[in-house]
Sequence to fold (427 residues):
Amino acid sequence: MGRNYYIIDFDSTFTQVEALDELARISLQDHPDREKIYQKIEDLTNLAMEGKLSFRESLTGRVQLLEANRDHLKQLIKHLKKKVSASFSRNKAFFKHHADDVLIVSGGFKEFITPVVSSYHIKKENIYANTFVFDKTGKIIGYDASNPLSDEGGKVKLLKTLKLPGEIYGIGDGHSDFQLKEYGMIKKFYAFTENIERKSVAEKADHVTPSFDEFLYVNKLPRAISYPKNRILCLIIGDVPEEAVQFLKKDGFSIRIKTSFEEKYVPDAGIILLGDGEKIETEKLQRAVKLKTIGYLGNSKKQLSHKLCTQMGIVVFDNPKRPVSIAKKIARFMNNGDTYKSANFPHLQLPRVENSHRLIHIHKNVPGVMAKINQVFAQNKINIVSQFLMTNAQIGYVITDISVEYDKQLLKELKQIEHTIKFRILY
Fold:
């Protein structure tokens, strides 16, 4: 098998922001016309990203407006370290394992990119970006114009000189990233939309990836969470405050806002958040095979069958007063397995365990199931890091954290244990 390379953009991809825009906010904070200048810089960024202005014109214009120095850069680096995109920051392990295969290729500047990506095990020699020119006092007065990345089509020019011996995959949010595909330099281009979606770029991509987890999932690469959250459909039905919707959206779930539980969503919904007074018919609930949790902004007992939810392994949270609190409980259950304060499940609050995979097993509360679960782990020679079990009269809810290396056969065997209601890998 040939080798794969992963070319990753920096601004609005590896980080949530455009670094030069942020640098301007730092360097011009005391400038009387700062708002006008910020807007000019932002416009120059967007015009180049959408392919409406040459990259060099955009870069020159932005650098001239900055009025920045080395001290401003120090502040910027501190800021950018806190602004790494969520899905990149949770996949540090991927970068460690693929340190030789990942290249950061950016029209940004090494002075701020290198300190930010270095803590992700990305090698200095694999960082390709522009460099600033400073005067004697440390003020930025320009950039090295001989660097191909300062020019229009710079990423294409750079890749031609690198002659990487293998399949190349590119991830980015801008026109310059798409150009790599357009000129046949890479096998596939993934439009990264976690921070910003540029329609003109997304519609030309081989695949739109709303998170780095999605990219890793599609390419069967090791990742921090087993199933990308953007693939989990979250239905919002009825009167649900915007702040609760935004919380789940920001957490990465795929949101649909509807007036009722439409038939086409019954087999696919993973999460449902309902406004007060909304009902779910028992017949629909029975067919909602992917449904993992329901949030209800009121008292859910009369509006949906708790008994059926429990039998199906669906965790119900309700609270008439605090919509955002419900959204947080849903996210904590989906991300961590917490069932604390659920209306129908045993209450479990869990620590996050690093360097392990978390498995959730929901089963009927009958004697012997736990013994069978642990027998499967033993037969597959699995190292159990930690295990948590809570039961009520109907069900057992067990969380097992296991070391990262295991055979997929294990998952099949756990699903097949008699009296299993639901099983999934959490991360």
